[in-house]
Amino acid sequence: MIGHTGKITVVDDDESIRKATTRLIESAGYEVDNFGSAEEFLKSGRVDDSNCLILDVRLPGMNGLELQEHLVASNNQLPIIFVTAQDDRDVRERALRAGAVDFLQKPFTDAALVRTINTLASNVKTTEIDSPSDSNTVSPFISRTEGFGFDQIVGHSPVMRETLRLASRVAESEVSSVLLQGESGTGKDMVAKAIHTASNRSAQPFIAINCAVLPPNLIESELFGHEKGAFTDARARKEGLLEQAHGGGTIFLDEISEIDINLQAKLLRVLEERCFRRVGGLKDVPFGARVIAASNRDLKHESDVGRFRLDLYYRLAVIQIDIPRLAARDDDVLLLAQHFLDLSSHEGRRKITGLTAETARAFRLYDWPGNVRELRNVIERAMILEDSNMISTRHLPRDIVPDAEKSPLARVNVIGIDATVSLPPQGISLQEVEKSLLKQALAQTHGNQTRASELLGLTRDQFRYRLKKIRQLAAEQPKFDRARAAKP
What we know:
The protein has helices at residues 15-27, 38-43, 64-73, 89-97, 110-123, 158-172, 188-198, 216-224, 241-244, 261-273, 299-304, 310-316, 332-346, 357-365, 371-385, 430-444, 449-455, 460-486, and strands at residues 7-11, 31-35, 52-56, 80-84, 102-105, 142-143, 177-181, 206-210, 225-226, 238-239, 250-254, 275-276, 285-286, 290-295, 319-322, 354-355, 390-391. By secondary structure, the chain is α/β, with parallel strands linked by helices.
């Protein structure tokens, strides 16, 4: 666990920032390593010595996101706090989806950084798995799922209840292949674990591998194992993950769409013939595990465009479960937010009891492109920054509460909020006010007219009528101006 005897690593190419950050962290009681580039950090041989990595996004050579991908591919669980001078939503989402703990924008305050590190210190736990002394060590991909069931997946919306009902029936069945499809962050891995726990395979291993972070040759070796001498570094026989699921466990292949097309053919043989061969092997090894595959892409479409084998898709999709996106789950977003708040409080962090009314409204209206994972990151970040016992909008990312939300104009006709616009002495164009409100509502809801209409307290038809009227007036304005200019 990170503590005052823990070590923090800083990787930033700006020497002045690196030194200032190092002094700050040391003053908080931590040991510090610092490096000017990702390459320098990797070459140091001290990657596994750190308890936390404070990482700049923009670095010469390998950038911060590429270093994160390298660490994930190496199965390194080092918590990462990203810092950047750029406000780039895509970069932030990419980093958080890959598992970053937080994302601080320069210039951040000393207090904000120390709070983030101290909160991480009170929350991050490390576990050790004893490995046998021979070459067939316990794989880091083997997960423990005891006690994790469907009752621990939070969600009472009709669409989520139906999803879990179907998954529960799958768990009780003997079906050998299951396909989970849904956007990143929807919880496909949790559904897979719950299926395993609720099945008669629960006493056997649950083995998870993320196909997106390992190169094709490494995926093949991890899945199938290899014989001694199969390739240069194969100094001994190695059991693959398929073989370690002995006795009929569960193999979870996350992001299966990223598997090389040639490896897809080998996986198809495993599913159809229930056996496989190690890399460099000549004998078939029996296979009795259930395969749960997951993808954030539509595999049927991927097969139509030639990126995924159609026969493998049909073989995997014996049962297909579509995991709904968070924005389609009604008020599950508020239920999950409260769950994460309670969880953090139970783990010993500050007691925050709930969300303000404005925050709850912002959460309902936001589209949540990162889904449940993004929500959890937002809650954890807000808990670090919040000074009161309720999460307020002032500590939410701008994507959720844009600057326009703080404008008096944006608070007119909002459900549950009484607000007025002060009429300036020189007057104001009502048409321009309405146009501004419509534009702000569309911007905040990323073009979703149904949500935009809710934001303004209108029906969807009323919203579309006003939008159409504004556009017609805008189109007619040049004609009016020309006619007025032509008058003598």
